[in-house]
Specification:
Number of helices: 14
Structural class: alpha/beta
CATH class of the largest domain: Alpha Beta
Distance between the termini: 40 Å
Radius of gyration: 21 Å
Shape: globular
Number of domains: 2
Strand content: 15-25%
CATH superfamily of the largest domain: ANL, N-terminal domain
Largest sheet: 9 strands, mixed
Length: 433
């Protein structure tokens, strides 16, 4: 039987699996392809995952293990606490500022489940930088740890900011069953879900406004990668145990949750498939190797320097990281020589690379496995099926092969706007119109 082209494989997967059914919808005045059977909100995604995987382990943080069911109950309890004690409702902006921990994720899903807007603030920002984030976003409620609280207190009174300490984020048990059910606010797919700040390389960071649909579009596009690989006869990304049985997706999370890859690719994607996250509070290559072997981690994502340090630590420990199926990289271009080194050292793991932006929910281009090994200097291919891409010159005209240009991405995963910056929004979105 002849192998399918990518286009044929896309149509086959969409036709066979209603999960990936695509239709054209009008979004902010523009007709775009969307996944019509994806959940309508992040609350819907959590409800679906908690129902399907209630007793499965969702995360490990230090010595704390949390199942899907227990996590969802803690999210619902904190959502009701925000609603009843702090009057948080649809459209309200609530900031989260702290390093990675379970309370961070509970807070994010609780805020989103109320139809409120998560304001992701960089946990490493200084007091002036945090002050800018609060002034720009207008958030007057924030979930923080002690260190971030100390940085915010100097301006909290002037900006009327109320701080909720991490320890108050929904304790594991409650005497009120009514607080262990999902909130009931009406949430539409194109409602705002988050404000996430860019790196600010050209001035103040820009607040990127993301919707529930835009985020779920990115998740569903990544979810479709596996079926597409199988349809085109390529090696699946599934990792195998010693007996040859598939291992469940298990991510070692080393990327901050205030980064688009940290929250989307390293956490929310797991909710789609019943995956597990191992939260490493601070990067340590030796500890990463031990966790990968002990917890049967199947996917590692980090900047290329972290891949190099992981390889060295595994070599020192005499580990082959046998459960890893993918060693992914982003945030910087991986040196071509590193691609071959990974393939040689970890024969069972596919080296992978990807590019996306906060403005695209991290969705963009990607390359993995044999194709990447054969072309280690390549940036990747467009992740289907709902994105469009073009490469243009300074005048906006498409460039011919072999020439340098600007990559433009268009899909329902793209941001709604830059917060408080209509001119920058128009300048950016008009390029991909």
């Amino acid at each position: 039987m002849p192998l399918l082209t990518e286009g044929e494989a896309i149509q086959q997967v969409i036709a066979r699996d209603p999960l990936f059914h695509v239709e054209e919808r009008v979004i902010r005045g523009e007709q775009l392809p969307v996944f019509v059977n994806a959940p309508d909100s992040l609350r819907g995604l959590l409800m679906l995952s908690a129902d399907r995987y209630a007793d499965s382990e969702l995360m490990l943080y230090r010595d704390e293990r949390i199942t899907y069911g227990a996590f969802a109950e803690r999210v619902w309890r904190f959502a009701h606490q925000l609603e009843l004690d702090y009057q948080v409702g649809p459209g309200d902006r609530v900031a989260v500022a702290m390093p990675n921990n379970p309370e961070y994720l509970i807070a994010v899903l609780a805020i989103a489940s109320l139809g409120a807007v998560v304001v992701y603030l960089n946990a490493w920002w200084t007091t002036p930088e945090l002050e800018y984030g609060f002034e720009d976003s207008g958030a007057q409620l924030a979930i923080v740890d002690d260190d971030r609280a100390q940085r915010i207190v100097p301006f909290s009174t002037a900006l009327a900011i109320t701080l909720i300490k991490k320890e108050a984020v929904s304790p594991p048990e409650s005497a009120s069953p009514s607080r262990e059910i999902p909130p009931s606010q009406n949430i539409q797919p194109d409602d705002d879900y988050a404000i996430m700040y860019t790196s600010g390389s050209t001035g103040h960071p820009k607040g990127v406004v993301l919707t529930h649909r835009s985020t779920l579009t990115a998740l569903w596009s990544w979810l479709m990668i596996g079926p597409l690989l199988e349809a085109t006869g390529q090696q699946p990304l599934t990792a195998l145990d010693s007996a040859g049985a598939p291992l469940p997706l298990t991510n070692l999370v080393t990327v901050p949750f205030f980064h688009i890859s940290g929250i989307n690719a390293c956490f929310l994607l797991n909710l789609c498939v019943g995956g597990k996250v191992i939260i490493l509070p601070k990067w340590n290559a030796d500890e990463a190797v031990a966790l990968i072997d002990r917890e049967q981690v199947t996917r590692f994502w980090g900047v290329p320097t972290m891949s190099a340090e992981l390889s060295a630590a595994a070599d020192k420990a005499g580990s082959t990281l046998s459960t890893l199926g993918t060693i992914d990289a982003g945030g910087a271009k991986r040196p071509p020589s590193q691609v071959k080194d990974i393939a040689d050292q970890f024969s069972q793991a596919q080296p992978a690379t990807g590019f996306g932006m906060t403005e695209t929910n991290g969705l963009g281009i990607r390359m993995a496995g044999d194709e990447y090994i054969a072309q280690p200097g390549a940036a990747g291919r467009l992740t289907p099926p709902v994105q469009a891409m073009q490469i243009v010159d300074e005048d906006g005209s498409p460039v011919t092969p072999g020439n340098v240009g600007e990559l433009q991405l268009k899909s329902a995963a793209n941001m709604r706007c830059y917060l408080n910056q209509p001119e920058a929004t128009a300048a950016t979105l008009s390029k991909v119109g």
